[in-house]
Amino acid sequence: DGGITQSPKYLFRKEGQNVTLSCEQNLNHDAMYWYRQDPGQGLRLIYYSQIVNDFQKGDIAEGYSVSREKKESFPLTVTSAQKNPTAFYLCASSIGGGRTYNEQFFGPGTRLTVL
Amino acid sequence: RKEVEQDPGPFNVPEGATVAFNCTYSNSASQSFFWYRQDCRKEPKLLMSVYSSGNEDGRFTAQLNRASQYISLLIRDSKLSDSATYLCVVREYGNKLVFGAGTILRVKS
Q1: Long-range Cβ contacts of B24-28 (<8 Å, 24+ apart)
Q2: Mean of all residue pLDDT scores within chain A
Q3: Chain A contact set for B32 (CB, 8 A)
Q4: Which chain B positions have a beta carbon within 8 Å of A33's beta carbon?
Q5: CA distance B109 to chain A (A)
């Protein structure tokens, strides 16, 4: 079964702790993305990667970090510098991430709550 | 001004009703347009792309007016299973998507 998995589904952390959210895909997609969704707001792009070992900041990258060491994996670390980390985090992937559009497929999301 | 604006609703309609959602976008250079559906506490899924000539997929009809920077989605013969949040999404360049906050639809029996 091809798809995108995110784990865990729910995550609770204390304020000031770093936390890493997992995203794995077996669709053989080159491009991967991280979004954040808050109530009453649209999804906002945090980071994206068009190819292994390369990634770019999105619109709200401050307080987050990523790595792309393998094609299948794009973990997101929420650092203590992120002022308001409680949100629904969505990972997505697409065949390519270049100039032409390729549909983005989303994982089931991780709901992070910082206490 | 938000880049993509939608009426948040909720729209409460009876089964069988016709309902329309509207969306406006601010970037006139936007290249592609989509409607996504998001069920409660789930990930968004592509419902349909929106083409300049208008397009239909079963009970769903999407329209685009580039001059007015306006997108619409019409749902005919609403079903209980249509209850969800509908996201208006605009592609600005490459694979950069800009999402509206969504319109909530509740279909009641």
Answers
A1: B24/B68, B24/B69, B24/B70, B24/B71, B25/B69, B25/B71, B25/B88, B25/B90, B25/B98, B26/B1, B26/B2, B26/B69, B27/B3, B27/B90, B27/B92, B27/B98, B28/B66, B28/B69
A2: 93
A3: 101
A4: 95
A5: 26
